[in-house]
Amino acid sequence: MRRHRACCYRDMKADTDYYEVLQISRNADVETVHRVYRLMATRFHPDNPRTGDTETFLRLRRAYQVLADPEQRAKYDATRLMEEEAPLPIFELKDFVHGLKGEVNRRLGILSLLYNRRRSNEDNPGLSVLDLEKRMAFPREHLNFALWYLKSKGYLRQEDNSDCGITAEGIDFIESHSSSDELVKRLIHAGPSAGTPLSAEPDIRETSVDDLPGSADMPSAARLALAN
Questions:
Q1: Each residue of 157-184: pLDDT tens digit?
Q2: Domains and CATH numbers, the chain
Q3: Cβ-based burial of 110 (10 A; exposed 0-12, middle 13-18, buried ≥19)
């Protein structure tokens, strides 16, 4: 059993959100973990002729093995907490810094962070400005205009505890561009490795949104929409 646990924990990727894999709250109890896994494993089991998917099933099983075990889950939660307090590498791209492009991309970044928060934490669905500062590595002075704009558009609202929360209109905006806009896709799946290079060279980092695949048609519809 110990060998199995060690192997399972070693195989975990730092940027894998197992709560997202199982589509459950981080506060879900173990009974919920068991119940959701059984339902989803049945759907995606390779023996299911209609909806079987081996890759998805294996991801579900890895997530279940960690979250159903109190010791592994505690280690995993501690690791994720440390990661969530560090800036996301994707915001190191220069396109989030300068000029109008940087302003518009920061709006996309804020919306994407709030979208992920809303989906993963139904009990506390908002992020404070301090949280946004930490995740994006920008001072609030660089975010205030974007926050005002997103509130004025109806994409963002102030939660009861003064946190920023995404609205249904904001969710619709992100989801409507998630399949066609490469940056939006990267932002909503952003993790510790989201800013790592796409090339095979380990020491080369992306320096621009234009380096992302499928970015030849920039500016995209999402950026045009947030610039008007």
A1: 998 888 999 999 999 999 999 888 888 8
A2: 2-84 (1.10.287.110), 89-226 (1.10.10)
A3: buried
